[in-house]
Prior knowledge:
The complex is a heterodimer. Chain A is built from 15 helices and eight strands. Chain A has helices at 16-29, 44-49, 65-68, 78-89, 93-97, 108-117, 134-155, 161-182, 194-203, 210-230, 255-262, 289-298, 309-322, 336-352, 369-384, and strands at 34-37, 53-56, 100-104, 123-126, 241-246, 266-270, 326-332, 357-362. In chain A, the strands form two sheets. In chain A, strands 2-1-3-4 form a four-stranded parallel sheet, sandwiched between helices. A four-stranded parallel sheet of chain A has the order 6-5-7-8, with helices on both faces. In chain A, helix 7 (134-155) packs across helix 12 (289-298). The radius of gyration of chain A is 20 Å and the shape is globular. Chain B is an alpha/beta fold. Helices cover 41% and strands 21% of the residues of chain B. In chain B, the strands form two sheets. In chain B, strands 3-2-1-4-5 form a five-stranded mixed sheet. In chain B, strands 8-7-6-9-10 form a five-stranded mixed sheet, sandwiched between helices. Chain B starts with 10 loop residues before the first strand and ends with a helix. Classes of the chains: A alpha/beta, B alpha/beta. The structure holds iron/sulfur cluster (2 copies). The site of one iron/sulfur cluster has 13 residues of chain A, from helix 4, helix 6 and helix 14.
Amino acid sequence: MTEAAKAPTLAKFASPVDRFHLELEPLKEAGVKLAGIYCVFAPVELVRAAGAVSVGLCGKKQGPIPDAERVLPANLCPLIKSSYGYAATGTCPYFNATDFILAETTCDGKKKMFELMDRIKPVHMMRLPTDKSPEAQALWLAEMRRLAAFLAQHTGKAVTDEALRREIALQNRIRRALLDVAAFMSEARPPISSLDLMGICESRTFVLDQEAYLNDLLALGRELEELRAKGSSPYKAGAPRILVTGTPVGRGSEKVLRLLEDAGAVVVVLENCTGLKGVVGLVDENAEPMEALAKRYLDTPCSCMSPNTGRFTLIDDLTRQYRPTGVVDLVWQACHTYSVESFDLGRHVTDDLGLPFLKIETDYTESDVEQLRTRIEAFLELQAL
Amino acid sequence: MDIRGEMAGTSTAGIDIGSRSIELVVMRGDEVVHAAKAPTTFDPVGQCRALLGDVCAARVVATGYGRKLFVEAFDKQPALGRVTDITEIQAYALGASHLFPQARTILDIGGQDSKVITLSPQGRVLRFEMNDRCAAGTGKFLEIMALSLQVPLEDFGAFAMSGDTRIPINSMCTVFAESEATSLMARGEKAQNIALGIHLAIMQRIHSMLRRAGQDGPLVFAGGVARNPCAVELLRELTGAQCLVPQDPDLAGALGACLLARKLLENDND
Ligand code: SF4
Ligand code: SF4
């Protein structure tokens, strides 16, 4: 990577905690409730239509893990341990500010952890089905309605169709704007670095004023267009282009992305749920809003779904758009669903897409950085020869 | 042997800085003129300096975990010309396919990690699998077990081959396997049989890694553990493949690095 001009609006996404506190204060004074969310299955439109706001809490740092391990087994996904550790130690300003937690029955580790978290802060658990059969759709729709009732109880504000439609339209606009920004990575020399882009995607769950977030995205898009026209990019031409898929990644757990970029690659797209998985797919604005919302969220191609063919389709689409030269599947240690799915995915990527594939299983510590560096460099050498 | 002075112009060197040992290969033209080995210790740069002695080379390629460190310390030193690096995957692929052009799979079991590399008929790396987080399935496992059975590591393979019964060691983890061996000893099991069971456990692990990587065709077995006759024998038995063991199995990486250095030198001179 080389030093290149940065889009000025990037600064707005740089320190999400400060921005969060600034935005939170007036809302708290007005009695607005704050919901903590951990997963892209959480329907933020519904939260906002009920007059509450939401903040993403998913743990991305190693810091609180030793404390979490006093309760949770060490052999558990670091994301779950980190999330719980922050809650249990009271060291996450976001968690501390929440009034209640929205959870889903996604993977086993997470749902059992939520049972423990419920003792720290009230957890509302949505029963997420694992497929898209008519019965599953009906259950998920009922769960949406149950969530609406739960929210109304806390906010004193029933969810109206009108409010829901308004929030759906806003989130759809945000999704489109975010996809437009991400699309700059399909350039041969993108005008933005992938770590900056990761931060922008991640900020979506931290920014309470979602209209302001949308406007920032639109401004950023215009700035990036100018940089693109000038040919300004932090990357050299001809670098290997990597699609990263698998488990969530964010500030604090981005070591694999950093190693890839240190080794001279461009991470052109993050397919995972902290990247585009949670952004693609709009809610149908012409259908009955609650049903449309339920359908869109159940379509999320997470490995907790069985079968999860949507993930392969998404990777195919992203491959066409972003033209990666290799695929890295990042699996947090002890994440069974992603780890098992990696086998079929590897076959699909090598046989059907004809791209080299690397599965990396690791945790949040730095202990294996040098080993990973060797693997990653060897993987990139394959693409250079 | 003169590897100094005016010959530097045609000499190349490859150095493999592993976590346990450092290997050096020097070539003049197509011929290996010098090879040496030293333990890595806590001062890898110092050990490299001692190993290099007064070797002169026009191009040097470093590989192994210490490759970056080496480039930093030795690039632009008057005696060495340009120093670059490659990963040990490429180095082993180059080295092993030079020694055995028919090779399609390379297995390297080193002191701290093990890897499998599959090659195309043209010797290009197709895929690789690495075990680099766990001591079971590496030379470390044998080292710990030899120590606990009080057999010198060099003799451990032959010792195991004198066993008469194969006892399954079930623990996947080095620490637990050690306690499993202890409890077998307490039950009066012959040390030779336990040693054999230990070799079998590691080679079975290696075998499943080979299968994951899609092992095919003649197999080159390199790295320090390839010196162990019991490991070689069991590998033949488990894979049913032709196993080719280089004369100096731990030099394959340094040789590959040196071959690349030679190629780079040719390009420089073109
Ligand atoms: S990986 Fe799946 S379950 Fe985990 S946070 Fe993402 S969408 Fe939710
Ligand atoms: S990474 Fe895997 S194990 Fe961890 S929370 Fe997500 S689905 Fe569960």
